[in-house]
Amino acid sequence: MDSIIDNKNHKAGFVSILGNPNVGKSTLMNSLVGERLSIITAKAQTTRHRIMGIVNGEDFQIVYSDTPGILEPNYKMQEYMMQYVDTALQDSDILLYMVEVGEHKHFEGIIDSVRRSQTPIVLIINKIDKASLEQVEQSKGYWEDLLHPDKVCCISALTGEHVQDVVEAVVSLLPYSPPYFPKDELTDRSMRFFVSEIIREKILQLYQKEIPYSVEIEVTLFKEQANVTHIDAIIYVERESQKGIILGHKGSAIKELGIHSRKAIEEFIDTKVYLTLSVKVQKDWRNDDNRLRNFGYGF
Ligand SMILES: Nc1nc2c(ncn2[C@@H]2O[C@H](COP(=O)(O)OP(=O)(O)O)[C@@H](O)[C@H]2O)c(=O)[nH]1
Ligand SMILES: [Mg+2]
Question: In CA terms, which of 11, 111, 203, 268 is 20 to 30 Å from 58?
Fold first, then answer.
């Protein structure tokens, strides 16, 4: 009986973080959830999937979705990436539209959809740590005119300044609903997914030019034993020449990648890790529907 009464006062909903590449969406999501669920780099197109992170309070549950940055798709993988954005536009209870101070770039189509969606909008002006008050005010005015948001938060996702305002804005707009997920759950994604994302993050950091955009990771083994977790992963590339670059001279590059990845995975899962990486060529996988679906794109 108690739980029925409780549920009446319980708020819950799906909250999507949208915006251009590199504005700080993943940094905000991690800060809100308190875990490094979403990988972050200084490069655009770091986030390829929709990743959920769940924040539970006594009488609320917020299911955040981090999404890929909005772009004009050039190949099929990017089309799938933008499908995540479209779905987020359709199925969210609240939209967090994120920009960074001084940035005015936007796609008319997306702004239109956001405005017509009838979903409450929280405008988030990020990176205030590297801007003057005037610049923040100016950005705020510009985006308020464009988006007509229900609430505005000016924050630094990096330093955490005013991030709590986002939580308060979201909770105030959340609909009444029982929780969607068990209250001790943090994400809808598996450990294998996070391991593959960590390896991809290290590739983004260690390799140049088109290499990071040409790889996909498949974790083929994730075996937990008493003191150690055994992980095998395959790095797929599009061309033979890219395989050579991933391996490096006498395997030096992949060795370094292995060391960095292992350390980051050990930190994430809190056990010792044996990591084995290998490289395979999967010709033009970014344009191959079947391959993309196997890699978890689409629905
Ligand atoms: N100065 C500053 N940098 C930030 C802030 N938030 C994110 N960044 C940086 O912006 C870059 C892109 O961040 P990320 O979260 O991956 O952006 P996303 O592409 O929107 O997910 C990274 O180098 C972050 O460290 C912020 O509040 N202030
Ligand atoms: Mg991101």
Answer: 268
